[in-house]
Amino acid sequence: MGCGVTAPLHPDVEPLAFLLGTWSGEGRCEHPTIEHFAYDETVVFGHVGKPFLAYTQRTVRNGMPAHAEVGYLRAVGAGRIELVLAHPTGVAEIEEGTVEDGRIELRSMGVLRSSTAKDVVALERSFTVEGGVLSYEVRMAAVGLPLQHHLAAELRRVPE
Amino acid sequence: MGCGVTAPLHPDVEPLAFLLGTWSGEGRCEHPTIEHFAYDETVVFGHVGKPFLAYTQRTVRNGMPAHAEVGYLRAVGAGRIELVLAHPTGVAEIEEGTVEDGRIELRSMGVLRSSTAKDVVALERSFTVEGGVLSYEVRMAAVGLPLQHHLAAELRRVPE
Is the pTM of this model over 0.80? Predict the structure, then answer.
């Protein structure tokens, strides 16, 4: 999705149009349970003319694929948005929140864990685009620890 | 994922290797709440050398994008598998089941619905590959109706 699509943007996702395209840069992972590290990241927001964006995220660490996540960012009216996500770690989640003036705030409404997944309880995310830089932060409650800073990255748009 | 990846297949996903590649063909949608219809479908299973496959599905109806879903099919040992899925309809789900002799059986372990999603309660899926044809069936419990046949398709491998 997002590759070669010629459909016009659905009017409901116009408030999210600033995200469209491919972004890459560096992120930092921090959590009390692991050693902190940096990663390279690519994020793609695409559309097919429907009232949602397709979202794909991949990271690389030490030249090897690391995390990934995929899903959809739905525009449901009046600045309300819903992020539906699948993680290869066995976690599926829905976050809901708002988009306003190029800033996105999302918070877990539910997290599903497969039988073998880690104990992720809740996630919060913010995205902003300023000066051509997409910045995000992810806060996570997991493995018995309360919601706290987990990930942050700054990504720049990759020319088409 | 699956495009240009040169990593060797993770040994845990060898029982799923028969799915790798791009498949396309026709499916049929049936449910008491809607008029039955046919759709064109493309499914891609890829990998990056980790113990899961990346799964992407898109359908087209009357020349327009229709359904889509994305996620990951995890191999967790002893023929057990876990499917983590995001739908643009506001549904996230985890299905668990088995792979044995080229046949996959999966059943919902949990379904999350966003505030604006339809009332999907449970899904079951089977996949088989026989004679070069990937066939699947999806059964769904939703909108007050019990689990019943919903989707079936037969897809053929698209040459690389």
Answer: yes
